[in-house]
Amino acid sequence: MFKSTILAILLPAAVFGLAVRPCENNAPVPQEVRVLDCVQEPCVIPMGGMVDMDLDFIADRASATVEATLDIFLGNFRVPYDLPVEQRNACNFFKGRGCPIQAGEFINYHLSTPASAPFADVTVDLRLQLTAADGAPLFCFRSSATIVPA
Q: Where is the signal peptide (predicted)?
């Protein structure tokens, strides 16, 4: 019975996408964002745990390179945080392919990165953006997460 309950809780996280908000720069939003163990905002993440997401988007332009940025905000204050260097090259995290990308291509991007916040029991706003070589965003979205003690 207990295993069935856990499966019933985890299964929707693997199947349904998370509703996300557009960024202030009017960039396209991904077609679908799936965050492990989260089906609605704010996602609850243990301090030091991992944010593990897959998302799908269609590239609106060709690009030889793609850069990933993840910004964390506490209210209007940007919390100092940068993706690890190896994760900034988004091409390394496109499922089944790399770069260059072509306009109109369907791409699945996977991000798994440590949860970070200045302290626990706080809800932060996350902004994830992938940027093409010409500096234009391929997509950008915002979502929220509550960081809880581990």
A: 1-19
Give the three-class secondary structure for 14: helix
Distance CA 70, CA 79 (A): 11
Distance CA 109, CA 92 (A): 9
Could you list the mean pLDDT of each consecutive 10-residue stretch along the chain, which spans 150 residues? 34 57 95 92 88 95 97 87 91 95 97 78 92 98 90
Q: Can you tell me whether residue 141 is helix, strand or coil?
A: strand
Are 112 and 86 within 8 A, CB to CB? no
CA 148: distance to chain centroid? 19
**Is the domain defined by 21-148 classed in CATH 2.30.40.10?**
no
Question: Domain map of the chain by residue range?
Answer: 21-148
Closest CA to 18 of 142, 148, 147: 142
